[in-house]
Amino acid sequence: MPRTLGLIGSGLIGTSLARLAVAAGMEVVLSNSRGPESLAELVGTLGSGARAAVPEEAAEAGDLVVVTIPLRAYGRLPVAALRGRTVLDTMNYYPQRDGRVAELDAGRLTTSELVQRHLAGASVVKVFNNIGSHQLLSLARPAGAADRSALPLAGDEEPARREAARLLDVLGYDAVDMGPLAESWRSEPGTPVYTRPYLGETPPGLTAEEYFPWFLRNPGRPVPASLVRE
């Protein structure tokens, strides 16, 4: 079992992962672009198992390191500090937010292949990118639970994929291995496994303004490994 989870990025997904990790008995080292002092309130709610740091410290402290920042900022990830680490990439490409990336638009690379190219010497695994932050927290279940959900993952190195799968198990999820990073498009925005299966039915009549608050509050529904594979 990994003992320490490093987090570069402490937004909605990062916060949910930190809560799951602390609940599972792990140590958590959080970081963001605004500095450790901006994380004082979150660290206080997480308790003694969590501390704030700068991204380089979080990278060096973690047995596994989650990068959960906007894709447009991937070039600022600390390459040297992440060398030799298994890096769990939650990032998705939203052109309206991230700007256009020609290689992604042309389908020559997946987002995680782009990140892997930047993080020379690290082992990138795509995971936690296809589920909302609230559903990620609320759908976690112990191993063997009848209503346990699964999440897909992809990575070029099998040992790194196994590490990611072990973390998923600790945090309350089964894993569905999609293979190498070239296959990680299968869980990207617009694909059948991206967020919607975990949400259940959308209430009729929601306006565009009402949808996002509903999305953030919705506890979701279980999605077994068989359905993720399908």
Structure description:
The protein has 230 residues and is an alpha/beta fold. The chain has a single domain (4-229), classed as NAD(P)-binding Rossmann-like Domain (Rossmann fold, 3-Layer(aba) Sandwich). 37% of the residues lie in helices and 15% in strands. It contains 12 helices and 8 strands. An 8-stranded mixed sheet has the order 3-2-1-4-5-6-7-8, sandwiched between helices. The longest helix is centred in the C-terminal third of the chain and has 14 residues, at 158-171. The chain is globular, with a radius of gyration of 17 Å. The mean pLDDT is 96.
Based on Cα principal axes, name the global outline.
globular
Number of self-contained structural domains: 1
Second-tier CATH architecture = 3-Layer(aba) Sandwich
Structural class assignment: alpha/beta
Task: Give the helix tally.
Answer: 12
Distance between the termini: 29 Å
Q: Please give the share of residues in helix.
A: 25-40%
Q: In percent, how much strand structure appears in the residues?
A: 15-25%
Topology summary:
Blueprint lengths: L3 E5 L3 H12 L3 E5 L8 H7 L3 E3 L2 H7 L2 E4 L11 H4 L3 E4 L5 H4 L3 H4 L5 H8 L4 E4 L6 H6 L11 E6 L2 H14 L2 E4 L18 H4 L8 H10 L7 H5 L1
Parallel strand pairs: 1-2, 1-4, 2-3, 4-5, 5-6, 7-8
Antiparallel strand pairs: 6-7
Comma- or semicolon-separated keywords:
Rossmann fold, eight-stranded mixed sheet, alpha/beta
